[in-house]
Amino acid sequence: MGAMQPTATPLDEKAIVRSAEQALEDIARIRAEVAKVIFGQDSVVEQTLLAILSGGHALLVGVPGLAKTKLVVTLGTVLGLNANRIQFTPDLMPSDIIGSEVMDQDDSGKRSFRFVRGPVFTQLLMADEINRASPRTQSALLQAMQEYHVTVAGERNDLPAPFHVLATQNPLEQEGTYPLPEAQLDRFLMQVDVRYPELEAERQILLETTGVRESDASAVLDAARLQEIQALIRQMPVSETVVDAILSLVRAARPGNGNEATDRHVAWGPGPRAGQALMLCARARALYDGRLAPSIDDVDALAEPVLQHRMALSFAARAEGMSLRDVIADLVKSKARR
């Protein structure tokens, strides 16, 4: 996972506490503003925000019509980020994302190439229905998501900071979709599953969104303040116990590491990026919850969104009707028993 933030000057303990209190107020305002527009879906809002606060990208997976796009647009507004949206379709080309070179001719007839930047040059990129586009086009995002720059005709072009990709995806069993390559999936800090709303939330959706006026969200932060909070999260202390819990969970999810259930159910497991993601997101979750240091509970709560897109079921597990959710839940349970 590329380090997105500039190196911050380490804070002493009192300064971290003061900064965390200010960040908590900001996060509370963000949550209140998002709640004006997105009803229910608390875990979806939380996980998507954690990915951004941790400085990473998120993949939102769910059937159409569950307000995935609306959530991304709302977060762009509330966080004060410049946002662009790309609708991924089968005929989308890499140049439609990155940009392309055009030939200019001056008054004297001299010709030269000029790079016209594509929509990827923004702070919050919404990649809508990312799995509708061909693998070639999907891979155009790889360098941007990892290295925060794109190379065109040998020239490096830096992306704005901060840079986040929030992609939405329809479940793969739907027609006309292409599975995302493993290398690209690994670039997403978290996969956020968007499920159907609870009854009361759906009632509120009906009442609030079918009238003459709908609520709008307002900006709470700007990009500079978001980067300050991201830098703070990277400086939050993590105990040895939590580090050990992260390592044992990630390693237990890999076949060939002595876990019999994993060997039977998992074809390939998470790499070191999964541990990095858990470490960052656990810190962000602690702050989101009003705590100054992450606990093992944070690791357990984040296991599914951080690990599920970095693993694949074995043929035997698929034949038994198992899901990755089941496998990860069992790993978390067995870790708690040890």
How would you characterize the overall build of this protein?
Residues 262-329 form the ChlI/MoxR AAA lid domain. GO terms for molecular function: ATP binding; ATP hydrolysis activity. This is MoxR family ATPase. By secondary structure, the protein is α/β, with parallel strands linked by helices. It folds into two domains: 11-210, P-loop containing nucleotide triphosphate hydrolases (Rossmann fold); 236-338, Magnesium chelatase subunit I, C-Terminal domain (Helicase, Ruva Protein, domain 3). The chain has helices at 13-35, 42-53, 68-78, 95-98, 135-138, 142-147, 182-185, 199-209, 223-235, 240-252, 260-265, 272-288, 296-307, 315-319, 324-337; strands at residues 58-61, 83-87, 99-105, 111-117, 124-128, 149-152, 155-158, 164-169, 190-193, 266-268, 312-313. A five-stranded parallel beta sheet has the order 2-5-8-1-9. Helix 10 runs parallel beside helix 13 (296-307) and helix 12 (272-288) crosses helix 13. It starts with 12 loop residues before the first helix and ends with a helix. Mean pLDDT is 84; it is low at 1-6.
What is this structure's SSE topology?
Blueprint: H1 13-35, H2 42-53, E1 58-61, H3 68-78, E2 83-87, H4 95-98, E3 99-105, E4 111-117, E5 124-128, H5 135-138, H6 142-147, E6 149-152, E7 155-158, E8 164-169, H7 182-185, E9 190-193, H8 199-209, H9 223-235, H10 240-252, H11 260-265, E10 266-268, H12 272-288, H13 296-307, E11 312-313, H14 315-319, H15 324-337
Parallel strand pairs: 1-8, 1-9, 2-5, 5-8
Antiparallel strand pairs: 3-4, 6-7, 10-11
